[in-house]
Amino acid sequence: MIRISNKFGAKKYKECGNIYKRSLILGTTLSVIFTLICFFGFEIFQLLGQNKTISDNGGVILKILGLSIPFTIINVCSNYFLDAIKKPKAGSYAMLIANLINILFNWIFIYGNLGFDELGAVGSAWATLIVKIFLALYLIVYIKKMKNSQKFEDKISLKNWWKDSQIERKMGYGIAITLLAESASFASLKIFAGWMGETQIAIFTILLNIINITFFINLGSTTASSILIGNIYGQKNRKNIIFSAISSLIFCLLLALITLVIIFNNEINIIELYCNDDSIKCIAIPLFIYILYSIPLDSIQLLMSQMLRARRDISFTTLNQIISFSTVLIGFAYYFTVVKNLEIKGLLFALLISYFTSSIIGTSRFVYLCLRDKKIGVK
């Protein structure tokens, strides 16, 4: 998406199409490997110590879901392509139709309607596969038939596609390392919470789930901002990059403020969506203040990371995330929980520090790059 948005901004439309095609080849090739792994679902569940009933049922479901992986990759690549060339509506409409189809086939397969057997979870997996196939076919046909599609058409060399996709792979490796570092860090926080006891980990899981929801709200707006910055970066227009960055920051903070107000005024209702245990509510509700502080900080750090990636500053962004989450977050989480015995409050405070660290480093880097653009003569 980043590369395509850069090329689209530079009006190199055929290169946009080439990047999309190479991404499809690379993505579907990797997906076949994971599909084959899913065919050993029974054995995987057995290795994880599950009983035979769970292994049998889980193995069947995993095989079916494994078949959907190549189509999922096609959907992701196609949606990213459409987003990057400023045609996001097609993917949104397709997703809306797909959800309706999913509801229909769930009704048929899960509950055994219209003469079909009642399949339960297996039926849900089949419904998911059908929806993924529909989305993949719809998006590919749409891209092929959309207005002015010919300007993205160009033949790519299958012989040299691996060499030609070197930049995309390099960017992908950096983003993958970042996601791995963040996922491992948050998993570590759950381990810390687990040391505190069942009640504490239950509370932390609820709070972390709320934080994750706010993260995905921020992710939508920051992804849109990264596409905008990527387009402008492709045009090499420094003033518009700065203007768009400031506008994106204001918008993201306003969105964070709205989210913050909604959560602040519905703390009890939100907790009650998860449980009605008064002892848990008494502990969890005072901790919401940390969630409220985290929302704008997470918005800023995520926006800066996305905008730096849009400028293809992948290595620095990856390093920043590793420092902020793998080092700062884990270090302070250990210090506050094990040394200072602050329990969940310590985990949330460590999370705030990691967001703040990432925000400061990311913002400083983005400002530096804008100043460097001026020095090297980018208008």
Major sheet attributes: none
Number of strands: 0
Q: Report helical residue fraction.
A: over 70%
Mean of all residue-level pLDDT scores = 83
Number of helices: 16
| Separation of the first and last Cα atoms | 24 Å
Tell me what portion of residues adopts beta-strand conformation: under 5%
Overall number of structural domains: 2
* Quaternary: single chain
Q: Topology as H/E string? A: HHHHHHHHHHHHHHHH
Alpha-carbon Rg, integer? 23 Å
Overall structural class, as computed from helix and strand content, comes to mainly alpha
The low-pLDDT segments are none
Shape type? globular
Would you write up a description of this structure?
With 379 residues, this protein is mainly α. It folds into 2 domains: 2-163, no CATH class; 167-375, no CATH class. The protein has 16 helices and no strands. The protein has helices at 2-9, 13-38, 41-47, 52-67, 69-84, 88-111, 121-145, 161-164, 166-196, 198-235, 238-264, 267-274, 278-284, 288-310, 314-339, 343-375. Helix 15 packs antiparallel against helix 16 (343-375). The chain starts with a helix and ends with a helix. The mean pLDDT is 83.
Question: In a few lines, what is going on in this structure?
Answer:
It contains 16 helices and no strands. The chain is mainly alpha-helical.
Layout of secondary structure:
Elements: H1 2-9, H2 13-38, H3 41-47, H4 52-67, H5 69-84, H6 88-111, H7 121-145, H8 161-164, H9 166-196, H10 198-235, H11 238-264, H12 267-274, H13 278-284, H14 288-310, H15 314-339, H16 343-375
Helix pairs in contact: 1-2, 1-10, 2-4, 2-5, 3-4, 4-7, 5-6, 5-7, 6-7, 9-10, 9-15, 10-11, 10-13, 10-14, 11-14, 14-16, 15-16
